[in-house]
Every structure is written in structure tokens, then in C-alpha cells.
Amino acid sequence: MSLGIPEKITALLFDLDGVLTSTAVLHRQAWRQTFEAMGQPFGEQDYLAYVDGKPRYDGVRSFLTSRGLAPTEDEVRRIGDQKNDLVNEIIDEQGISPYEGSVRYLQAARKAGLPIGVVTSSANAMRVLRAGNLLDYVDALVDGNVITASNLRGKPAPDSFVEGARRLKTAPEHAAVFEDALAGVRAGRDGGFGYVVGVDRGDQRDVLKANGADVVVDELDELLS
Prior knowledge:
Rossmann fold; six-stranded parallel β-sheet; DNA polymerase, domain 1; alpha/beta; 10 helices
């Protein structure tokens, strides 16, 4: 079975929320509740423009700056931690579901023998992967905890994907990136990765292409043939 990627690709790097699991919806809900509790309206375009795919504190900074606010670092951390606590509560209440098309693609990739990495800004990745029964597919994980501990720049900088490729013992030009966030797609492009797959979860097909996606799909199993 073809994976729908160039022959030069020998390793796969997947974002988590919005690519493998539907938890992006839960993160969006937590961000909205957090900011609206501060009196700051927060809509879909705000999520996509300011926080999607970015490390939590960068998202806080980006959104509040767009509103003309200048939070201190203590305020940024307090707000970001409130959001993290809230998303964990929402996960407990609503559960986690992996996308069926993504599971089929992971199964095909595993059968083809390609190493698989997950690269995410989330500090809750292990919990999400375990709850979604996805851990058995993951050979390397670069999450928010690794990004912080290793002093990596978050997306849209390519550092976390480059670290993922390193952990899979693969050069970026031989690795494919799978992303739904514009910040992640730009990271794949700017990191010189061999193929960037955009996953359109929010009517962003054209803008994902404009930011560097080589191909855009609605579900990962569309790549299978």
C-alpha cells in the first residue's frame, strides 16, 4: 500500500492535536473559556491566528498582545496554567477520540516499516496518546515538556520537528511533517523537511498551501492508495 509520500521519505513526524486526535477542539474550548473569563472575546479566527500549534505561554502572549495588552511573565504563566488545568478537566469529562483516518494511516505506516514520531507543543501528550490508544505507534515523542527542558523554540520555529527527526535518526530532508496548524506547516517548510502534509480541519486549505504544505487533505487516509 502506498502512503502517498515521496520515495525519499524514510520517517514520519505527526502533530498530535488536530492531526491524530480531535483534542484540538478541546483546546479551543479551554482557550475560549480562559480568555472570556478575563473579558476578552475569543473566536475561531483568534484560535487559528494566535494560539494554534504554539507552546502554551507563547499563545497567551500572542493573543493578549493582539489586544494591545502587555502581560508580565508571571501573568502569562498564570493564564497559561489556568488554561492547561481547564483542558485537563475537559478531557476528563469528554474523553479523547483519535481520527479514524489517522489511525488507518498510522497502521499503514507501521506495516510499511517507517518510524513514527509525534511532535507537539502540548505538555499533555503522553496522557492523550495513552487515552487514544496510540502509544504503540510512537517511536519518538517531542512534546511541550521536551521543548521546555531542551530550550527549543516552539512552532513556527522548526526546532521541535528537527529534534523529532534527530530522535528517529533521520535527516529533515528525508522526513515528512503532518500538521493542521499554520505554525506547524511553517515549521516544516522552514526546517527543510522533505514533505509537508497539511490537514485541513477548519476550511484552511488555501492558507495551508500558502504557508508551505506540499499537499492538503481532510483526512490522512486520503493519502493511501
